[in-house]
Amino acid sequence: MKGKDLIGRAGGALGRAGGAVTEAGGAAKDRATQAGGAAKDRATRAGDAAKDRASDALKGLSERVPGMLVEIGSPGVPLEAPWGIGFGRFLADTAGIPEKARGVTKLLDRFGQLEISREHLSIDGNKVAWSDMTGITFGSPTDAFTTGAVDQAVQRLTSSLPKFPGRKALIKLAIQVLATVCLAVKATIADFDTSGGEPIPMTIQYGGKLRRKEVRLGLFASLLSVSKPDVASAINDLAAQHAVTVTVNKPSRAIAAAAAIGAIAGRLTKRAEEPVPEAPPELEALPDADVADD
Is the pTM of this model over 0.85? Predict the structure, then answer.
């Protein structure tokens, strides 16, 4: 065979190989495009499902929330068994969110939580052992329920949740549930009492002299403390058992606790109508699998 023919045949083979590579590359690109489209569709469906669940959950909140607060019960004094609840579970139970769709709601416990045991206090995801505590400060509910506290709580909520389908719908639902809790608690206390109400736990101090830290109760934990007086009594009793210093601050303003709580309920309702900020870019987005459909 002549050299020219060999070169011609080799060139033809290379051409056919190049065509096969191009065809394979095109097919791979098509598959990737289809996969990307399918993933986008799944995310859209998951987001729509989350919005539907949030919309359904809003119906009848004012009727369900008071009953849920009663179901939580109160800690015993003296405390015999651990007591408490996180806002994520409270929201999921109140809104009737299915178990398989509760993976995301558990993140809300970092936003609102109060748990009491003989070994520790857990506040908004911060677990502090009694042996590490140096002091507990009690104060008036009127100093816990301010518009500034509302804005800080909403900022914490929006900045702590990563990106996932239905994130904005869940945040709006969380704010509206919290507003409904405010109204339910307000209905249980006297409107005419301008003493500021019975003192509730406000901050927990712990750590050594060189690294002293402080945890402040959030809105949900403070509302639980107002609605269940045994919370303050149980914490006071445990503090005495563990020789933890208790300080009680006087109210800083003469206003009925009911009025203060009513005011923040209105503020929360307004915040629920405002646009929800995007998730902070430094938080890793949750995969679609973590947000289950109904």
Answer: no
